[in-house]
Structures are given as structure tokens and as C-alpha cells.
Amino acid sequence: MGWKEHQDLILWANSLIDQNPQVQIVLHGISMGAATVMMAAGSPELPPHVVAVVEDCGYTSLSDELEDKISHSLGLPAFPLVTVTSLLSRIQIGNFLGAIDCVDAVSHSEIPILFIHGENDVFV
Description:
Strand order of the largest sheet: 1-2-3
Strand content: 5-15%
Order of helices and strands: HEHEHHHE
Distance between the termini: 13 Å
Radius of gyration: 16 Å
Shape: globular
Number of helices: 5
């Protein structure tokens, strides 16, 4: 859901920089890709060659998104499913769901971010 992918994105940016040290990079992502670029934007490992981010319809946090989908889309109680999923996430990728937070990530960003989101988006 964007957590591991943001690390890959940073590796790709560094690969571009290795090929062209003068490159300036703008990251763009839609939906899960938006979450990916937001998390990359807040990473201390993001190279300075990344000069801006455009995110389109990203989620605020993975736990918020999962809670919403379980309760509204499936009509099930979020507890204990979110808690169990968070534990599985910790085992699988090394982080609890609460750590995968785009709002927190962008609060650490020092580059411009354009947020695109419409009221007609009922999924995110």
C-alpha cells in the first residue's frame, strides 16, 4: 500500500541522479501511488534532486483507510480486524499500520506538494 514502494521510489530517484547529476525530479502518484509519493516526500533519505510532488487521491493513513473500508464497504466492525491486520503487517513488512501515515510523512517534507482530491471520490 505504498510503504515499501516509497523506498523503491527513492532508489529509482538515486539511479536517475547517478545517470544525470543535474536532473530535477517531480514525483507523481495516483491512489496508492499518491500514498507512495507522499511517504517518499517525507523521507529523510529523499535526495535533494526531487523538487516537487503531485499526489492525486491518496489516503491519509493506512489504518484510517482500512477501518473505513471494513466498516463502510463490508459492514463489519473494524475491531478486531484492523488490529489483527496491523499485527500481520508488522510481521510481514516490519511496521504496524499506524506507522504508515501519509499525513505524518508530508509534515516532514520540505518540498512543494500539490494535493489533488475531489468530493466525488467515494473510495478514498
